[in-house]
Structure formats: C-alpha cells, structure tokens
Amino acid sequence: MPLTNFDALLKQVKEKPSRRLALAGAENAEALEAVARAQKENIAEATLFGSRGAIEKTATELKIDLSLFEVVETGNPADAAAELVGSGNAAAMMKGGIPTKQFLRAVLNEKYGLRTGRLLSHVMIAQLPAYHKLLFPTDAAMNIAPGLKEKTELIRNAVEVVRALGIEQPKVAVLAAVEKVNLPAMPATGDAAALAVMGRRGQLGNCLVDGPLALDNAISAQSAKIKKIKSDVAGDADILLCPDIEAANVLYKAFTYLASAKAGAVIVGAACPIILPSRADDSETKFLSIACALS
After folding, report:
1. What would the pLDDT profile of 200-238 be if each residue is shown by its tens digit?
2. Beta-carbon contacts of residue 203 (< 8 Å; ≥ 6 apart)
C-alpha cells in the first residue's frame, strides 16, 4: 500500500523503537532543532559532536534542554560521529555545521567501516500537493553523470529506501525527455530501455521498471492515456530515476520551491543511512530526513 504523505510515514516510524543518531557539527541551528524534535517525538536519541560552547549557545537560543542529549566535545566531529556509528553505537549519521567534504571524508574512511563497496546515492522523499503518494527522485546530490551500470545501482538503492517504508514492489520510472528510444541523440533513452528490460527479467530486485518516460507520463495517468502508453508504472511511479545530477537537482529544487513540496532525503549505500542536508534546508526538512533515515 502506498504511503500517501509524511504523516503516514511518521506514524509508521514512531511504531519502531527509537534509535541513536550521531550529529556531526551540532551547533547548526536547523540541524539541532530537527534532532531535538526527533528526540521529543521518540524517533531518535542523539549524540551531539562539536564545540560544546557553540552547541550550548545554539541550544540556548532555541530553548533546547541539552541535558537530554549526550554532548561530545571534539575538534573533528565528522570522524567522531563516524567512529560512533562504525562501532555499532549509533544507527545513522547526520551532517550539521561542517563542510560536506569533511563529512564525506569521514564516511569513506575505511577505518570506520562505513564503506560497503556499494555506490553511494541520494534519494529524495517528496510529498507534493498534486500527487497521490510520496515520490522518490534520485540522484540529486552524489552521482554526476551515471552510466548504465551506475543507474542499476541507483535503482537498487532507491528500491531499498522505498521497501524499508513498507512498499513491497516499488514502481520505477526511468526519466528522459521523450518516451521513445532516440539514439545517438538522447543516450538517456537507450539506458532507460535497457533498464526496463533488466527490470522485467528481475535483475533489479523486486520492483517494476519502465522507461524511457517523460515526467508527465511517469506521474500522470491522463498524460499516459493520451499518449497511448501502456505501462504498469506510467501515472503511478514511486521512484523517479533522473538521467543525471543536473536533471535531478533541478527537479528537487522545483519540487521544493515551486511545488510546495514537503521533503526529506537520505544517502544510501553505506553501512548506515547518511543524512546530508543542503545548507538551505530548513529544520522541518532535516527532521523529515531523520525520520526517513531511521525508518
């Protein structure tokens, strides 16, 4: 059964035991506020890494009681957080007020055991007023120009996220600008057709895959009907596989800024869920990302 909105997702997550989150750079106001809300709603317990003085200053400004958290003073919060997760004492890792490069360097450091050999990829979770269920676009932040091999891994990662939320057989729309293969002018259409065949043969896991599909056909049954597209995915997609990071990033920001989407996001492919929010994300987006990561 599809998850229609974040209220349903949060209800589902709250039925599970609370797990520990490692926040690297906890002086960031939006991140700290999100973590405090997650703890208050029994979604997560948290260990906060960074400058205790800076964290206390932010907590005071936000009227957050720091006695409810474990606070660890460290000059290298990313490594300290990665070590906690790698030791099995936290279930997920989140970036706060530190540079992305520093954060990812710790995630990829072999001594912490978070690398799995899988491709790391970004999955957005979006609730849109105009769509009947949650949508999961990928990959807006990690993989710049994925080839066919990388796209198979992007699908597997996104399917893992969606299935963790209880959707047993997600529908994957492989996006392009048109619905027909157009080679060599539009390489993404060839990849999409190949992925659709792989999906039908069961090579991509328990999911339905179709493409190439333009965005309108992926999310509008009426559009698919007008264009006479017969597909189990068209008009009812769960996952939107974008052709490259530029298309995915534009879609992510269009959903957020133009379509009034509620959104969260998670990085998958590591030994634990990774929360890597944008600097512009508000506390609600970061809170929803925590809920998705700990689902």
Report:
1. 999 999 999 999 999 999 999 999 999 999 999 999 999
2. 152
Coil, helix or strand at residue 51: coil
What is the sign of the dihedral through the CA atoms of 227, 156, 119 and 150?
negative
Domain spans in the chain, listed from the N-terminal domain onward = 6-116+270-293, 123-262
Contact present, 118 and 269 (Cβ < 8 Å): yes
Banded model confidence at residue 2, pLDDT cuts 50, 70, 90: confident
What percent of the residues of the chain are helix, what percent strand, and what percent coil, each to the nearest 5? 40, 20, 40
Domain covering 123-262 assigned CATH 3.40.718.10 in the classification: yes
Architecture of domain 6-116+270-293: 3-Layer(aba) Sandwich (3.40)
What's the pTM value of the predicted model, to 2 decimals?
0.94
The residue type of 130 is A
Q: Are 71 and 55 in contact (CB under 8 A)?
A: yes
Strand partners, 175: 213
Confidence of residue 1 (pLDDT cuts 50, 70, 90): low
